[in-house]
Amino acid sequence: MNHRSHKDTAEILIEALPYIQRLDGKTVVVKYGGNAMIDEALKSSFAQDIVLLKQVGVNPVIVHGGGPQIGKLLKRIGKESQFIQGMRVTDSETMDVVQMVLGGLVNKEIVSLINCHGGRAVGLTGKDGGLINARPLKLVPGENEDPKALDLGHVGEVESIDPSVVKMLDDDRFIPVIAPIGVGREDGKSYNINADLVAGKMASVLGAEKLLLLTNTPGVLDDDGQLLTGLDAARTDALIDEGIIHGGMLPKVHCALDAVKSGVKTSHIIDGRVRHSVLLELLTDRGVGTLIRG
Which range of residues forms the domain containing residue 288? Predict the structure, then answer.
């Protein structure tokens, strides 16, 4: 390694120092999904990022999705999926598959990956320790839609979160990895919940410093394709009203906004297709996505 390379390496490490100091002892909730969850190199770099964060005193909490994996297994067993307003109708049989895939296969693969890189991950679903209390998701009927035909079955939303089990794991140097399955307090049923929403609520309840949402995009773009970042809540609301933020990005931005409006310091919508995107966003000056503050 030549002198220049040594100097570059030292500068990169020093650049990270103030960020590490600011995040020491703080909680960061990461929603893990998309390409970062499928591509082998990205999976490995994600696990390394999480282990490094824990090592330098940050408390990462991971909430993961698994939609494509659920779809694949349903197809294999010959189960047809029906969608209403873009959401999969989840009957009891489908919910069994959801729990097998999310709470079993996907969750344990992430746990194993982090542990292979020297971390101490523990897998949970929202059922463990009464973590996520859920209720059925009620859809708003569109024009000429019969409300009775909008029953999604076991698709839910967060009623409340009891973070005791997550805090206990954090305090004991473990890394919680959470599958977004909740349980109804009154009916005892299991509910599949959107992972972005669970991550946002989890960040709020834990008083997290940051919420990171990994996506398959560079972040929030303007009409010219330029990355927008350093947005406050008012500017973000204006961009939504102007139609600049639209389509598939809208739910992510709403989730990020809800988090900062309920006490999370900053939300980050980042490009999970970039190797080590979590570290680049948290510990470098430039970052790799859109930052939204309260």
Answer: 24-293
CATH of the domain at 140: 3.40.1160.10
Inform me whether the pLDDT recorded for 245 exceeds 80: yes
Query: What's the pLDDT at 1?
Result: 46
- In 3D, which of 108, 98, 100 has the Cα closest to residue 177? 108
203 within domain boundaries: yes
| pLDDT tens digits along 55-88 | 999 999 999 999 889 999 999 999 988 888 888 8
Strand, coil or helix: what is 21? helix
For the stretch 265-292, pLDDT in tens is 999 999 999 999 999 999 998 888 999 9
CA torsion sign for 129, 130, 132, 138 is positive
- C-alpha pair distances (Å), 291 with each of 70, 85, 239: 30, 29, 14
Residue 264 belongs to a domain: yes
Question: Residue 3: pLDDT above 70?
Answer: no
Please report, as a single letter, which amino acid is at residue 258. D
What is the pLDDT at residue 234? 92
Buried b (16+ CB within 10 A) or exposed e, 80-114: eeeeeeeebbbeeebbebbbebbbeebbebbbebb
- The answer to whether residues 63 and 103 touch, using CB atoms and an 8 Å cutoff, is no
Whose CA is closest to 179, among 107, 71, 279, 81?
107
Instruction: List CB contacts of 103: < 8 A, sequence separation 6 or more.
Output: 123, 125, 179, 181
pLDDT at residue 25 greater than cutoff 50:
yes
